[in-house]
Design brief:
heterodimer; A: extended; B: about 200 residues; 7 helices
């Protein structure tokens, strides 16, 4: 009916159109995925605070500022009081710290821009992970090398589950710089190295076999381990595999 | 039908673009952005609820954190009763619970000491050669292994950690009472090691 030329042109045209549609779809679909859209988010903060200087060079432990992370779901951002512990006497006339001093004097909070943010329908708990001796670096990357914090992991659901299924591949063992408590004396010669090698225990473990660590149990609901005498120290524990049940994260 | 063979540079270009695209899409290459991430379908990402440390459009002071009614004491939280000057009361108020000095407790003391005290007092408690000590205008941070400090009672050191002393800030809000005792026990081991080494 049509000439061969016209037939070919139609076929090619439809093919090209299809290709364009597929490419556009892929680009749009993949570029809103967390691994592309969220990773590398690095907002400008109100105070030019540098983790590279404070944690990397001065070796201030993460928990000095983010204290309470081993007990609560959220990791607190330090108050200006915490900064002033040092900055009353260190660089106390620096213009870069003017906002911190003002906040300290007036009691108004500094409005840091939030970087890591899960959607509100999913729930993450720091304390559970910190007490399983998982270092901050496993999830936040080498923060102590960042002048300005940027998001390192995608924080997507598959990222959570990848680690929950094979923790040994993803977990960086506790390092002294993070202040993660392992229940054992630390060597402070190299603060940035893991002194602790993470090896997951099977979910239903015979706890009687775990002997090389003194494991107290404070939250009676949490483990069947022998109770320790002192109440109140958030105890570290051997971690099993993370849960994959929908309701642990979506409730 | 005779389709001409594409020139080699075109093949290389297409290949390079494809490799780049794969690397970017798989997250191996990232670029930094100061703009918040795009939310394509923001389904229930932002719910109308109070989230810690995030501010709130609901309350008049724009803070999601609600202040407790004055005088409220939270459960399991002890308020340190003494002011910095009440040195004389330190021993009668802070009675050493004499926890067992097991490796676990000493390790906890070390962990907390390294986190909260080492920035100023250094890991060996000698308060020397520390970048923070060197860079600040500190009039002098005492060596905690010196005999004068070793002579302080446990209750007194507990008081110093809880209420601070002159330029040393209070750590009552960050270090729980039990951790303070653990720190003291660990500090004693450092002091012993220092006197033994001399």
């Amino acid at each position: 009916m049509f000439s061969r030329q016209f037939d070919l042109a139609v076929k090619l045209g439809v093919g090209a159109l299809g290709l364009v549609v597929v490419v556009v779809f892929c680009v749009v679909y993949f570029s809103v995925r967390n691994s592309v859209a969220d990773v590398g988010y690095r907002p400008t903060q109100p105070v030019p605070f540098s983790h590279k200087l404070h944690a990397g060079e001065l070796h201030v432990s993460c928990q000095y500022c983010h204290a309470g992370v081993e007990e609560s779901a959220h990791s607190p951002i330090p108050s200006s009081q915490t900064c002033m512990n040092c900055h009353l006497l260190v660089k106390n006339d620096s213009p870069k710290l003017a906002m911190v001093r003002e906040s300290y004097d007036k009691g108004t909070p500094i409005e840091w821009v939030r970087i890591h943010k899960l959607p509100d329908y999913s729930h993450f708990n720091h304390s559970r992970h910190i007490r399983a001796q998982i270092d901050c670096k496993s999830c936040h990357g080498p923060i102590e090398e960042m002048g300005v914090v940027s998001q390192f992991s995608s924080l997507s659901m598959s990222w959570c589950l990848d680690c929950h299924r094979s923790p040994d591949k993803h977990i960086v063992g506790a390092r002294p710089i993070s202040g993660v408590f392992t229940g054992k004396l630390e060597k402070v010669s190299n603060l940035l190295d893991s002194t602790f090698l993470f090896k997951p225990i099977p979910a239903q473990v015979d706890y009687a076999g775990v002997t090389d660590i003194v494991v107290p149990s404070f939250g009676a609901t949490e483990s069947k381990l022998p109770a320790h005498k002192i109440d109140g120290i958030p105890h570290p524990k051997y971690a099993g595999y993370g849960p994959e049940n929908c309701s642990t994260c979506h409730y | 039908m005779n389709i001409p063979r594409p020139p080699i540079w075109l093949l290389i270009l297409v290949g390079a673009v494809a490799i780049l695209a794969v690397l970017i899409l798989s997250g191996r290459i990232t670029w930094f952005s100061t703009d918040p991430p795009v939310e394509f379908v923001p389904n229930m990402d932002h719910q109308f609820k109070a989230i810690p440390q995030s501010g709130s459009s609901f309350f008049s002071n724009k803070s999601s954190l609600r202040e407790p009614i004055p005088g409220t004491v939270a459960r399991n939280v002890s308020v340190y009763p003494l002011a910095q000057g009440d040195v004389d009361l330190a021993d009668s108020v802070n009675v050493d619970p004499n926890y067992e000095k097991s490796e676990f407790v000493i390790a906890r003391g070390q962990n907390r000491f390294n986190v909260f005290c080492a920035p100023c007092h250094n890991y060996n408690a000698k308060s020397d050669s520390n970048p923070i000590v060197k860079r600040g205008l500190w009039p002098g941070i005492p060596d905690l292994t010196r005999p004068e400090t070793a002579a302080l009672t446990n209750g007194r050191i507990f008081h110093i950690i809880s209420a601070g002393q002159n330029l040393m800030p209070s750590y009552a809000d960050k270090v729980s009472p039990i951790d303070r005792w653990a720190i003291i026990y660990y500090l004693r081991t450092l002091q012993q090691a220092a006197t033994a080494g001399e």
